[in-house]
């Protein structure tokens, strides 16, 4: 047993605190918007120039002038504001966004993050990921604990080109939750039905 | 001073040249200067360098200039939606300089504001920082990035008056204001040109000082990822 995508997103949702301005990445992080806890109000930033991102539009109401950072059509809310890309990354780099929840290919025990490039294979670009991890208050990674070959994605040292060095605060995987601390990763909790031994066995990084 | 031109082709006359550095607005296919891109393709100029967040898709946006091999180099943050781009890049026909998205936006803004270089913590410890000046401020390391001073800016706004005061619509604003600011000459295409006085001066997003030529036209405004929710959902 372990958490599925939605359970991982729900666990990440518990990181959200009332009043936060938050940026959600593409993939499982996008699902986190379905799991904002009762009584908690957060404002979602879309780095292409919007605060207060609403849900997907109803069919027939799509607006080509209103998209999120994944280029998907979205809607606005009563408190929405729009701004240009320089202003958007000014608030990211300036530390005004409290938290980013992102996917990753690899994270290591120093909090280094790799999520933008596989040399020779994937060369799409970093988009806003490098700015986000450098600038926001807290970086939470949500990803599977192992890759499709069963190898740990929580490493002693990242092998792929970095998105940021020493930037990750917390990692939520299908097996549990770990924090980046002095000397390695610290287990915060294990997923339903996962033992601490199983989580350790699936982790290459030093667990302290 | 007449800023309004009859067509994108007329607005490019005397401005567009081989080998130019062009800053283009838009994010994905949203808010891209689609009329000017088509006119640049038709002009036949080549060896262009584009500072643009994305490279369009194969048959829309900057992608149409890749098909005709008019682009020598892209300065972008994300080019993942364009198969022809990948083919040309992997075969060495096209140069690519990846910039983090916020660094690209700030490089444009800085260029327009007369700032040749600035320090940012974005990219420190990554390949982006290699060969760049590092400097510590208050115990944190930053790298120097340079302002972009483009030969030409091409942008898209929603409405502008005949003096170039412009208003953008929703997230179609994106890179358009910083791209407009950093060009020696800025050509703007809009959905509607109005008379001075029709736009509230307090609501102008980009003052006309940054805009040299304006055209009006019909826009396709293609949607890249059409995503909806069912009406039955709560």
Brief sketch in words of this structure:
Chain A: InterPro entries: 3-oxoacid_CoA-transf_B (IPR012791), CoA_trans_fam_I (IPR004165), NagB/RpiA_transferase-like (IPR037171). The complex is a heterodimer of chains A (208) and B (234). Chain A has 208 residues and is α/β, with parallel strands linked by helices.
The name of the CATH superfamily of chain A reads Glutaconate Coenzyme A-transferase
SSE order of chain A in H/E notation? HEHEEEHEEEHEEEEEH
Distance between the termini of chain A: 24 Å
The whole-angstrom Rg of chain B is 18 Å
- Strand order in the largest sheet of chain A: 4-3-2-1-5-8-10-11-12
- In round numbers, the mean pLDDT of chain B is 96
pLDDT under 50 segments of chain A (min length 5)? none
Question: Helices and strands of chain B, in N-to-C order?
Answer: HEHEHEHEHEEEEEHEE
Number of domains of chain A: 1
CATH topology of chain A: Glutaconate Coenzyme A-transferase
Q: Nearest-angstrom radius of gyration of chain A?
A: 17 Å
Helix content of chain A: 10-25%
Helix tally of chain A equals 5
CATH class annotation of chain A: Alpha Beta
Describe the structure.
The complex is a heterodimer of chains A (208) and B (234). With 208 residues, chain A is α/β, with parallel strands linked by helices. Chain A has one domain: Glutaconate Coenzyme A-transferase, CATH 3.40.1080.10. Chain A has helices spanning 5-13, 28-31, 85-93, 129-135, 196-201; strands spanning 21-24, 43-46, 50-53, 76-82, 99-102, 106-108, 113-114, 138-142, 154-155, 170-172, 176-181, 184-190. In chain A, strand 11 and strand 12 form a beta hairpin. In chain A, helix 3 (85-93) packs parallel to helix 4 (129-135). The longest helix of chain A is centred in the first third of the chain and has 9 residues, at 5-13. The radius of gyration of chain A is 17 Å and the shape is globular. The two termini of chain A are 24 Å apart. Chain B has 234 residues and is of the alpha/beta class. Helices cover 20% and strands 27% of the residues of chain B. Chain B contains six helices and eleven strands. In chain B, the strands form two sheets. In chain B, strands 1, 2, 3, 4, 8, 9, 10 and 11 form an eight-stranded mixed sheet that branches. In chain B, strands 5-7-6 form a three-stranded antiparallel sheet. In chain B, a hairpin with a 4-residue loop joins strand 8 (150-161) and strand 9 (166-167). The chains are: A alpha/beta (208), B alpha/beta (234). Chains A and B meet through helix 3 and helix 4 of A and helix 5 and helix 6 of B.
């Amino acid at each position: 047993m372990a958490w599925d995508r939605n359970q991982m997103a729900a666990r990440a949702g518990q990181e959200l605190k009332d009043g936060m301005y938050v940026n959600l990445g593409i993939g499982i992080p996008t699902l986190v918007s379905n799991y904002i806890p009762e009584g908690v109000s957060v404002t979602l930033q879309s780095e292409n120039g919007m605060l207060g991102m609403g849900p997907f539009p109803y069919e027939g109401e799509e607006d080509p002038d209103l998209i999120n950072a994944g280029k998907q059509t979205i809607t606005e809310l009563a408190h929405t504001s729009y701004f240009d890309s320089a202003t958007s990354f000014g608030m990211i780099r300036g530390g005004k966004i409290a938290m980013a929840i992102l996917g990753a290919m690899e994270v290591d025990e120093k909090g280094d993050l790799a999520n933008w490039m596989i040399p020779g294979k994937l060369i799409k670009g970093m988009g806003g990921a490098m700015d986000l991890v450098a600038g926001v208050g807290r970086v939470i990674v949500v990803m599977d604990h192992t890759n499709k070959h069963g190898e740990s994605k929580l490493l002693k040292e990242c092998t792929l080109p970095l998105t940021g060095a020493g930037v990750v605060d917390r990692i939520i995987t299908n097996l549990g939750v770990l924090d980046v601390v002095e000397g390695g990763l610290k287990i915060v909790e294990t997923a339903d039905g996962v033992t601490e031994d199983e989580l350790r066995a699936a982790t290459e990084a030093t667990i302290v | 001073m007449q800023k309004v031109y009859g067509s994108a082709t007329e607005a490019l006359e005397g401005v567009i040249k081989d080998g130019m550095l062009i800053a283009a607005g838009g994010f994905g296919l949203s808010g891209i200067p689609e009329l000017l891109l088509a006119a640049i393709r038709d002009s036949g100029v080549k060896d262009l360098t584009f500072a643009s967040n994305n490279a369009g898709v194969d048959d829309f946006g900057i992608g149409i200039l890749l098909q005709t091999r008019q682009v020598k180099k892209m300065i972008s943050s994300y080019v993942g939606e364009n198969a022809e781009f990948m083919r040309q890049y992997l075969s060495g026909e096209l140069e690519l300089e990846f910039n983090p998205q916020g660094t690209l936006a700030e490089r444009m803004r800085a260029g327009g504001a007369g700032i040749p270089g600035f320090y940012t913590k974005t990219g420190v410890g990554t390949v982006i920082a290699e060969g760049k000046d590092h400097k510590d401020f208050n115990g944190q390391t930053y790298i120097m990035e340079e302002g972009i001073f483009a030969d030409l800016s091409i942008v898209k706004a929603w409405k502008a008056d005949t003096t170039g005061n412009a208003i953008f619509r929703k997230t179609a604003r994106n890179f358009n204001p910083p791209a407009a600011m950093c060009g020696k000459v800025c050509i703007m295409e809009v959905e509607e040109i109005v008379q001075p006085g029709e736009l509230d001066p307090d609501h102008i997003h980009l003052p006309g000082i940054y805009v040299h030529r304006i055209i009006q036209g019909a826009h396709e405004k293609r949607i890249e990822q059409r995503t909806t929710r069912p009406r039955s959902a709560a």
